[in-house]
Amino acid sequence: MRESGVLSHLAVALSRRPLAFQLTLLVLVTALPLMLSSLLMYNRLVANARESIRQSLLVSANTFAGLVDSEIDTHVAIVSTLAQSPTLLRGDLEAFWHEAKQAVAIVPSAWLLVTTPDGQIELITVEPFGTPLLPKHLAPDIVQRVFAEGRPLVSDMVIGSVSQKRIAFVQMPVFRDGAPLYSLSIALAPERFLSLMQNHFTRGEVVAIVDRNKNFVARIPDHEARVGTQASEGWRAAMARSSAGWIETKTVEGDWSLAGFAQTARGWSTGVAFLEVDINKPLGTILWSSALTAGTLTLLALALAVFTAWHSSRGMTALATAVQDLGEGRLFTEPPAPFAEAKTIANTLTVVSAELNRRDEAIRRHQIELETKVLQRTEELMTEIKRRQETETTLRQSQKMDSIGRLTGGIAHDFNNMLTIVMGNLDLVQRRLKSLEHSAELHQPVESALQGTRNAAKLTHRLLAFARQQPLEPSVLDVNAEVADLSDLVARTVGEDIRVQTIFAEGLWPTFADANQVENCFINLVINARDAMPSGGNLTIETANVFLDEDYVARFVGLVAGQFVMLSISDTGTGIAPKILERVFEPFYTTKAAGKGTGLGLAMVHGFVRQSGGHICINSEVEKGTTVKIYLPRLVGGIRNSAAQQGIEVDVQPLRRAAGGETILLVEDDTGVREYVIDVLEELGYEVLVAVDGAEALRIFAKSTRVDLLFTDIVLGAGMTGTQLAERLLKLRPSLPVLFTTGYACDTILHQNVAFNLLNKPYTQRDLAEKIGSAIESSEKRSSATAA
């Protein structure tokens, strides 16, 4: 009501103003936000451009520092080679003069001089051999340092005693029998570095090299005038604070510039800069052209608004006069109209007197049309209400099924413990009855009771399952082979900065899925992982045979429990925030920059996996990485199902029994299940060590001399889970076989770092015997292979 009152007052206030004022106000209200938006966009453009230039200058400075180091290293290599010359070591300076002359000829502008340890110059390659009265070395302190440190040193800029030009040089000590013999100096001519600058910088940059005293070694522009002079105060201060970075400072000429600088390995520094006037010139051109265009368009719009208002006012005045004449019953000619709508009004006013006798009929016709539209709209509203009611019903049903899934997930563990006790003991009774005479009449009741427990387990499964079917073009597929075929494509896709590790499961089950869609999903996930690691990282591709039980799949609509082929793609990238993770499967939702992604990748992967009867889940931590797991149903005998899903048992092989006093460490917090398992294991000949929680199991393990297998429930009642217990024991004995059991095993419970065998509750004596035997035998085979 308050907003309506404000709008009404505004409408009344505007109605008192002429049309010219209203049109002018409309132009200004439209133009000013656009101008403000353009100004903000320009500021953002300037900021982005300057940031790009900063990064470019820093990269150029670092690259140029490497080139300077390479040039100095060339001189170091020459003087190091000459320092080992036999002619020099035996004191034949004339022969060495010819040898040095040839060596330094490969580096234009370079020359070599030989000094004694006290700084006396013996020869110089720019003067004929034997030139008398050569001056002493111009920097005797570096001669002493080079003998003290025993390695080549690079000087700062000095004035050459012979050439009287500013130069730097590489000083190299020469020893004979451990005693100082000579010191070699090879000149680093500034012209060499000037040529290096001119070859690599051609865009008008200000480029400079300074020595440790912050004097210019080379510079463009004004090389000749600036060599040996001090760098600008701003650059000197920046180099004192950091070895590399960027600054905004004045050049030695007093011009503001944006510069990047870096230090060479020899202690000199390089700098690359753009003058602010050069940076701002194109940006200023954009600003002024945009402002001129916006101003011109605004003035044109204002002129058009004023003209339109003037023209409209004239026409509206004529129309008002015509209406007054019509109200007074006077005939009139058609008035001039300023626009098409006004012309329509004028035409209507002209013929209205002749149409008065038909006005009632026209009114009735409009009433009928209005009533028809009302009826049509009412039907549309009723249809919409019905649709919303259906949607709300579907939502309530979905919420109801979700609540059932959470409820059954909460009670599944205790219920399956009870089923384990009942089914296990009935199975034990059935086996023992076989050894008794006159017990045939008891077999059927026991079998019926066993079937009842299986039906109870199946009932729990049905409560947790949601059915769904989608048409596909599937075929028998080997996921290992499919991933292997794509390995070259993966390597090209992710680049050299990302290390790819592939872990193929041995004996991977076949699946029944569309090969092209599997390939598309795989490449989509690999690209997402690559984009999450812009600075490189680790990409792990893994396959495995897994079983998703009813408790796990009950949390997902349409997922059926059973055996699955898992394809996992893990990265060590930026990770996904929880709020974003909730929406990753939404179509067209993307966090990538405009033009970088459509938001359909993960949505397509999700749709295909669900259509194939599979499942997809994402686990992610910000700044740690993301793991995406795809589960595709196992293909068994041409049908995507398993014996476990149908409740079929095949009990034809003899039970695997203990061999040679094998010992099992049993950890189970449920009393009934624990007593049943103890009876079964002892009947199979195993020695059983019993613990009710993780802490007690650790104490028993520490005291025991032999434990062949750990058999533990995943969910224990005393704080420590079965997986945490297994991790502790595997650190003590990495080869220890581990068999887990649970009523609702899922990825959030089973720690990804623990390799595991899993026996789902409820289970029979045969199930337990086979799982324990398989785990122990697999461990023995691994131990034998390691020993071999």
User: Total strand count, please?
Assistant: 23
Radius of gyration, in Å, reads: 44 Å
Tell me the fraction of residues in β-strands, as a range. 15-25%
* Structural class by sheet pairing and helices: alpha+beta
Q: Uncertain segments of ≥5 residues (pLDDT<50)?
A: 393-408, 461-471, 639-652, 745-755
Arithmetic mean of pLDDT: 77
Q: Estimate the global geometry from the Cα principal axes.
A: flat
Compute the separation of the termini in Å.
88 Å
Number of helices: 23
Portion in helices: 40-55%
Biggest sheet, in brief? 6 strands, antiparallel
Topology (elements, then pairings):
Layout: H1 2-15, H2 19-82, H3 86-89, H4 93-104, E1 112-115, E2 121-124, H5 140-149, E3 153-154, E4 158-159, E5 166-176, E6 179-188, H6 190-200, E7 206-210, E8 216-220, H7 223-226, H8 233-241, E9 245-250, E10 256-263, E11 269-275, H9 276-327, H10 340-351, H11 359-434, H12 440-464, E12 475-477, H13 479-485, H14 487-494, E13 498-503, E14 511-513, H15 515-531, E15 537-548, H16 550-553, E16 562-571, H17 578-581, H18 601-611, E17 615-621, E18 625-633, H19 643-646, E19 663-667, H20 671-683, E20 687-691, H21 694-703, E21 709-713, H22 722-732, E22 738-742, E23 757-760, H23 765-787
Parallel strand pairs: 13-15, 19-20, 19-21, 21-22, 22-23
Antiparallel strand pairs: 1-2, 1-6, 3-5, 4-5, 5-6, 7-8, 7-11, 9-10, 10-11, 12-14, 15-16, 16-18, 17-18
Helix pairs in contact: 2-6, 2-9, 9-10, 11-12, 11-20, 15-18, 21-22
